[in-house]
Write a structure and sequence with these properties.
Layout: H1 16-41, H2 47-65, H3 72-91, H4 100-120
């Protein structure tokens, strides 16, 4: 017996409206996470709330990126930023802002943030 497959072998397809909604939701969630992260990480002596905002931001981005209708470029950018948020939380333990590893990780966060900011037009 020979099995053949006709048509596209790719996964499900989504309407333009579904893709637009997924993108809009991701960008709205990104803006919320980025705003909280910016506020909480720029207040001196606010270490605990900084870490909480980064952790929450990562969760918000991962949840929005899980929408299967989302364009892969948006999904990848959101997941990459979420990973750098999580990394910054882990790296920051016991370090000061001028620590080279903290600086490098912060620079990585800023670079990943810039990608998503460009995609979302903010």
């Amino acid at each position: 017996m020979v099995l053949t497959r006709h048509g596209r072998a790719s996964g499900p397809s989504y309407t333009a409206a579904e893709r637009a909604t997924a993108q809009s939701q991701l960008c709205s969630n990104y803006k919320l996470a980025a705003q909280a992260q910016h506020i909480e990480t720029n207040i001196p002596g606010n270490t605990a709330l900084s870490r909480i905002s980064l952790t929450n931001g990562a969760l918000i981005l991962r949840a929005a990126a899980a929408d299967p209708a989302l364009d892969p470029a948006y999904r990848d950018a959101a997941q990459n930023l979420a990973v750098t948020y999580e990394t910054l939380v882990a790296v920051s333990t016991g370090k000061t802002a001028d620590d080279p590893q903290m600086q490098s990780t912060s620079d990585d966060v800023n670079a990943k943030d810039s990608v998503l900011k460009t995609l979302c037009g903010s």
